[in-house]
Amino acid sequence: MPKIQTAMILAAGRGTRMGALTDIKPKPLMEIKGKTLLHYICQKLAHFGVTKVVVNTAYKGQMIKDALKNAPVPVVFSDEEQALETGGGVKNALPLLLPNGKDGLFVINADALWDEPTRSVFERLEKAWNPDEMDILLAMVPKSQTIGDYGKGNYFIENNRLRRIRPDEKDAPYFYMGVHILHPRIFEQSPDGFFSLRDLFDKAQSNKRLGYVIHDGSWYHVGTPEALQETNDRYMP
To answer: Considering the domain 6-234, what is its CATH architecture?
Structure first.
């Protein structure tokens, strides 16, 4: 039985870069090989042994609820009248995530997909998680292992610590995969309402409490219609 059994999937956004595709349905319900992105994430969580999943909803939320009626893991929903961004969405859902996730919980972006040639990303994260030394633990992937809509990298590893790319830097060798563990205490003194988890990543980085693991498989960032097609062509469930 895994130590961390609670997870949140961030599914409230529309995914505007998908263009007309998200006029019909939200980005988490985009299909790869005939199954939705949400399906794959729930399947991976169930296989790992997570027993409670919170999914936040805003844009076309009822469609997401309908799609998860037969999910392979128990799902509860955190409804947002307007999407609260990533940080605001998790903070808003804390009453549903606690006390189960009081020592750490998984948070996953609904537009990321990955394969696992050796070990589960969740297994890697849980094994590396040390709440005495970390507030956040990010899953990272080298740029050479990215597929889809990835742009420039967003992190460096320097002296065995993560450093987010600065505006004056052209590229970085690693990407954050949209999968991490966080400790709920990171939300102390955070604002209410709309804000990004990136603010909390930066806070943990400044306090030297931001950890990382390196994924050994491919990571698919499904952010645009072109990336959706490329992922459909290359992903092997």
So the answer is: Alpha-Beta Complex (3.90)
